[in-house]
Amino acid sequence: MEFKIDGKSxxxxxxxxxxxxHSTIQTPVFxxxxxxxxxxALDANDLLDMGAKIILGNTYHLYLRPGSKLIKKFGGLHxxxxxxxxxxxxxxxxxxxxxxxxxxxxxxxxxxKSHIDGSKHYFTPQSVLDTQYELGSDIMMILDDLVALPNxxxxxxxxxxxxxxxxxxxxxxxxxxxxxxxxxxQNIFAIIQGGTDKEFxxxxxxxxxxxxxxxxxxxxxxxxxxxxxxxxxxxxWTTDFMPQNKPRYLMGxxxxxxxxxxxERGVDMFDCVMPTRNARNGTLFTSFGRVNIKKxxxxxxxxxxxxxxxxxxxxxxxxxxxxxxxxxxxxxxxxLSSIHNIHYYLNLMRQAxxxxxxxxxxxxxKEFYQKRENTGK
Length: 377
Fold this sequence. Notes:
The protein is built from 15 helices and 16 strands. The protein is α/β, with parallel strands linked by helices. It has two domains: 2-271, Queuine tRNA-ribosyltransferase-like (TIM Barrel), CATH 3.20.20; 279-372, no CATH class. It has an eight-stranded parallel β-sheet with strand order 4-14-13-12-11-10-6-5. It has a three-stranded antiparallel β-sheet with strand order 1-2-3. Helix 7 runs parallel beside helix 8 (198-209) and helix 11 packs antiparallel against helix 14 (331-357). The chain is globular and about 60 Å long. The protein starts with a strand and ends in a 5-residue tail after the last helix. Zn(2+) binds at residues 309, 311, 314, 340.
C-alpha cells in the first residue's frame, strides 16, 4: 500500500491518497457496504458508474456462505463479483458477536453459532486472515474483542488486552504468510477499542499503533447507541494517538453529519449500511437533508430527489415516480433509490476533499449545515 497526505485544513481534516493493488483511493472516502460481495440492489457497473474505488465485504457472512474457498476458485472477490477496484473485508468478529445468541470469546478467539443453520464455528486471529487471504481483499481487518456498551471497566479492559494480544499474533502470522508468498498484495489494519473511556482509548491506541508493521488503524466500537457528541469527543481524542502517515478508518459510521464531523477530527475512511438500508425503507439523503419519499406530498412532484444531484436517478426520474415505485413495492425502487443515496455519499466525500485541498473547510461545513435547514426543498 502507498499512502500520502495531499492536503490539510481546519483542525485535523486531511485529504490523502491510498494506492492498493486494485485502485487509487482518494480520501476522505466512504466505502459502500457489500456484505455478501454485493452492495444490495446494485452491481459492479452501478458502482463503477458512481466512481466507487473501494467497497466493503463481510468475512463472517462470506465465510459461512458461499465459503471463501469457492470465492477463491473464481479469482477472489474481484473475480467473483466483477468489481475490479479495491475491497476491504472486516474480520467477522462483530457479526459473530452480534448475530449469535451464543457467541463466546476466550483468550484465543471467538466461538459462535451460525445464524444460518446453527452450526458451531471458531474464529482466531489466524483463521480470519486465512479466510481473507482466500477472499483476496485489498485491506484485511484483524479479529478484535468487542464488548456491548455500557459495560464494566473490567470487561472493557479485558477486551483491550485480548485485542492487543490478537493484534500481535495477527501481524506476526501475516508477515510469516507473506514470506511464503501468501497475501503479498494484501494490507492489514488493527482496530482500536476502549468504549468512550479516554483512558482506555489511549491505552488501546498506544499499544496497537506501536505495532508499526500494520498498514493502517481503525477506530471500532462506536456508533452503538452513545450520544453523537460522545462519539465525536472519543474520535477527537483517539486520533491524537494514531500515526499521521497511515490511514485512519472509523468503522460503521454513519450519517452525513457524522462523516463531516469526523473528517474534521482526522478520519480518512468510513463505511455504513445507512445509505442503502435507508433507501430501501424510503429515506433518501439530499443536499438539503433527508426526504421521506413515502409521503403523499410527493405523489405528483415532478422534481428530482435532489436538484443539486447528477446521479442516474436524479437525471432521469421524478419524486412522483419514486413515490409510485415505493408504494407499489416495485423492485426497481430499490436500485434507483440505492443509486441515489450511494452517489450522494460518494459525492459528499469528493466535495469534502476539494474543500480540504482548497483549505476552506469551515466555509464548506457552514454551507453543508445551512442547506440542511431547508429540508426537503
